[in-house]
Amino acid sequence: MIVMICDAAAMADDKPYGTEAADAPVRRADFERALRFLNMTDLDVRDSLLRLAAHVVALTDELTRRLDGVEPLPADPNTPARETKGTIEDAVGEQLTPTFLKIQLAEVKDPGRRLWLEGDPTSKYTVDGADVPCAELIHLCGARCCTYSFPLSTADLDEGVIRWDYGRPYMIRQRASDHRCVHNDPDTKACTVHAQRPIVCRKYDCRHDTRVWIDYEKRIPAPLDAKDTASTDLDLFERLRRREMSYVAENDAVTHMWPEAEPRTGPPAPAPGTRILPRRD
Predict the structure, then answer these.
(1) Residue 60 to residue 222: CA distance in whole angstroms
(2) How far, in Å, CA of 198 to CA of 201, rounded?
């Protein structure tokens, strides 16, 4: 059993600002704020480990070259540091950046369960949607684009309307029953948050997607299990650039978040020393 000891200063009962019932439910905004902070901490730790891995790889390669007799022996340890050339430290330092870059490129090539954010800095509300009459076609295509998995942006997270998967940050949240986005109406297949839809949805053009159409002009939909034959993979360096952009944006957003937007009142503060026991539900 957890017991909270409250030692709050006395305050006027008519203006109990900042207080909250001990058994009040956690707000989604607060919960997601904590998750985003933990996720960024995880990224920072992972980045440090990758840099350490790059150092180990560069050091191992350099030692292997020297043991094989390819490289000269290191300088005399008594030589002043400013005069040393060709030491192991120098060689490792030169290889550290390109080695770390190779590790980063391997990460973005196969991200797996790594954190991922949409790195497009464009405001989604300034983007014109693709010229596709979705409302007229939805009875044919079944809005199968709403079954695709994709990352949200920091702007989506800040706005707090579009839901994301807490177990796979920061991918769009989907249902297990039909693998669709949670904002998709299961009956009409329409988007229930169309005005706030992510930038990925706004830019998506299904007309040449072989998962959706055999022939768009003739309105012939593809089989439900059709695969996309067009290559949509970004250049790895572009992927890495976008990932770095998304990291900077998310780190800035999390750093400057405030737990309270406006003054909020709650129940009167308990007297100093009051024992508050959790509710037994």
Answers:
(1) 52
(2) 5
Q: Measured in whole angstroms, how far is the alpha carbon of residue 248 from the centre of its chain?
A: 11
Q: Which residues contact 41 (CB under 8 A, 6 or more apart)?
A: none
Does 210 fall in a domain? yes
Kindly list the averaged pLDDT for each block of 10 residues, start to end, along the chain of length 281.
Answer: 44 66 84 92 90 91 75 53 61 87 82 73 88 92 93 93 92 94 95 94 92 94 78 72 87 88 80 67 55
Residues 100 and 136 in one domain: no
Residues 32 and 80 in one domain: yes
| Residue 193: closest CA among 142, 141, 156 | 156
- Quote the CA–CA distance of 71 and 91 in Å, as a whole number: 10
Q: Is residue 69 assigned to a domain?
A: yes
The encoded tokens of residue 195 equal 């005005």
Segments forming the whole domain that contains residue 80: 28-109
